[in-house]
Design goal:
nine-stranded mixed sheet; six-stranded mixed sheet; binds zinc ion; 15 helices; binds manganese (II) ion; binds ligand BES; alpha/beta; 20 strands; 515 residues
Length: 515
């Protein structure tokens, strides 16, 4: 049952759901997921037979193994598809939503440089292995293919060799499924994937290209396009409001800071869960460390220190596309952390927006300063529940690596909500404790608190510091380890990967009123 969905951003890529058998589907490439050891029975046996035994031969030859991301391109014999792409998924009990998303992205990336405009994807083997079945798989595959097509090399270049193919059409093949609900799920997946890619491009763009003002301009463009209210607070207004921590970080750069505030729904309006949810994202367009300057090695990565801001800006736009009018606030403090004659010095004492006096002992612990004022401001605008996203520490990456985001949250019920949204989105989080006993180690001689504190337990202290600026249910997602990949993976390019975008969208949509 064909169902054409016109899609806003990727006007060129349509999604079609067909409920016929994979051997009846015409495409440039048909993706054939292989769960566990390749066992050629049932439908897979029939696909193999019609391909002239290609898949069996490749498996026997060792070209296709059971190892996840093992892939083989095969000729398709008498099948109407021109080629087959067999993709090993791994063992069934280990297949979760993240796996399905990554497998779809990996299949699209495997076709880099190839002439593919119509890609067909056989969903059944994944639908049989995943809780949620074909509907869940349709969403995750559509999202994965869109994210897999992302090519950061194209931001500043006309042509990129071996870029993932730009598809005209994605055909989801699900014999016996309900085509209408699959098509709706796939459309949601495409929109979530596009939002992640929007966040990635903003994050990947260079610091000489995206200043705080340019990030605000990009947010304005998205707000206009998706019917969001926006307010951009400049340095003068921020000073009048009393955002002393935000100003302290922003003042070192000739590129002035901007506090970007976006909203859907009315001021303070509650969603279906009686929340006014605020998403707050760290927008350090470049983090040199300031006067507490960083070493040169890998400093270029710090153009992506704005990933949190880019993610919340993209997420509120995605929510506006999927469920317009859902009450939601996004606050993105955007600054450049630079050394210079006007920079904050270690030992400077500033007054935060919530009135607390802060001793800035290390100007490289700048994220928590701008987030503190942004969280206070979000509460002033009526937020009842808060989540901040930030490339806050290097320590979190040493603890959890690049696939698991560290999370601080209080109270426990709020953590449950965040955690459940992460599961639905197929993203991994691990909780880090807020150890009250360490608070005295952040005492200052001169002020109420210092921003860095001693090195022991510095990751915990980063969360403890931010907590000083919230009075409502709050979570802090530290994407310092997960925001970008230093080299390509099977499922993602090098660079920013849009992590937490899907989780934030899930969290917000939980409060959407049924259309
Ligand atoms: N943006 C960095 C954290 C970071 C470093 C993220 C490397 C990703 C990769 C942050 O502003 C920072 O400099 N944090 C310091 C904190 C310290 C001074 C307490 C850190 O992690 O070293
Ligand atoms: Zn930083
Ligand atoms: Mn820093």
């Amino acid at each position: 049952m064909p169902l054409d969905i016109p899609l806003e951003d990727h006007a060129q890529m349509r999604v079609r759901v067909v409920t016929e058998q994979p051997w009846d589907v015409a495409a440039d490439v048909l993706v054939v997921p292989i769960v566990g050891e390749p066992a050629f029975d049932g439908v897979l046996d029939e696909i193999d037979r019609r391909s002239g035994g290609e898949l069996r031969a490749l498996a026997a030859f060792g070209e296709l193994t059971a190892k996840r991301y093992s892939m083989a391109l095969a000729s398709a014999g008498e099948l109407p598809a021109s080629r087959l792409l067999a993709v090993a998924v791994g063992e069934a009990p280990q297949i979760d939503r993240e796996t399905v998303h990554h497998i779809a992205a990996a299949a699209e990336r495997r076709l880099g440089g190839r002439a593919v405009t119509r890609l067909a994807f056989w969903l059944t083997p994944l639908a049989d292995a995943l809780e949620g079945g074909a509907v869940a798989v349709a969403e995750l595959v559509a999202r994965g293919v869109v994210e897999g097509s992302y090519e950061p090399g194209a931001i500043y270049r006309e042509t990129v060799e071996d870029a993932p193919p730009a598809l005209d059409e994605l055909v989801l093949v699900a014999p016996g499924a309900d085509g209408t609900s699959l098509a709706r799920a796939a459309e949601r997946g495409v929109i979530v994937g596009e939002g992640a890619n929007t966040a990635r491009t903003l994050s990947n763009r260079a610091a000489n290209d995206v200043s705080p003002e340019v990030l605000a301009d990009e947010a304005r463009a998205l707000a206009e396009r998706h019917g969001l209210w926006i307010d951009v607070i400049d340095e003068r207004r921020a000073a009048e409001l009393g955002m002393g921590m935000f100003i302290a970080v922003g003042r070192g750069s000739a590129n002035q800071p901007r506090m970007i505030v976006m909203r859907s729904g009315a001021e303070g309006e509650r969603d279906a869960l009686h929340r006014h949810l605020a998403l707050v994202g760290k927008g350090v367009c470049f983090d040199s460390g300031g006067i507490s300057i960083k070493p040169a090695a890998r400093m270029e990565e710090m153009k992506m220190d704005k990933a949190g801001a880019c993610t919340v800006i993209a997420a509120i736009a995605t929510v506006a596309r999927l469920a317009p009018g859902t009450p939601l606030l996004a606050v993105a403090p955007a600054v450049e952390n630079m050394p210079g004659p006007y920079s904050t010095r270690p030992g400077d004492v500033v007054r935060a927006l919530n009135g607390k006096m802060v001793d800035i002992t290390n100007t490289d612990a700048e994220g928590r300063l701008i987030l503190g004022d942004a969280l206070t401001y979000a509460e002033r605008l009526g937020a009842t529940h808060l989540v901040d996203v930030a490339t806050l520490t290097g320590a979190v990456g040493r603890m959890l690596g690049n696939l698991v985001t560290g999370a601080f949250a209080t109270p426990a019920e709020w953590w449950e909500q965040i955690s459940a949204a992460g599961v639905r989105a197929g993203e991994r989080f691990w909780p880090i404790p807020l150890v009250d006993d360490y608070v005295p180690e952040m005492d200052s001689w001169y002020a109420d608190i210092q921003n860095a504190g001693s090195a022991d337990g510095s990751l915990v202290k980063s969360g403890l510091f931010i907590r000083e600026f919230t009075t409502k249910p709050w979570a802090h997602l530290d994407i310092g380890g997960t925001a970008y990949f230093r080299k390509p993976t099977p499922f993602a390019s090098r660079g920013a990967n849009g992590v937490t975008h899907a989780t934030l969208v899930e969290l917000a949509l939980a409060g959407a009123r049924p259309a």
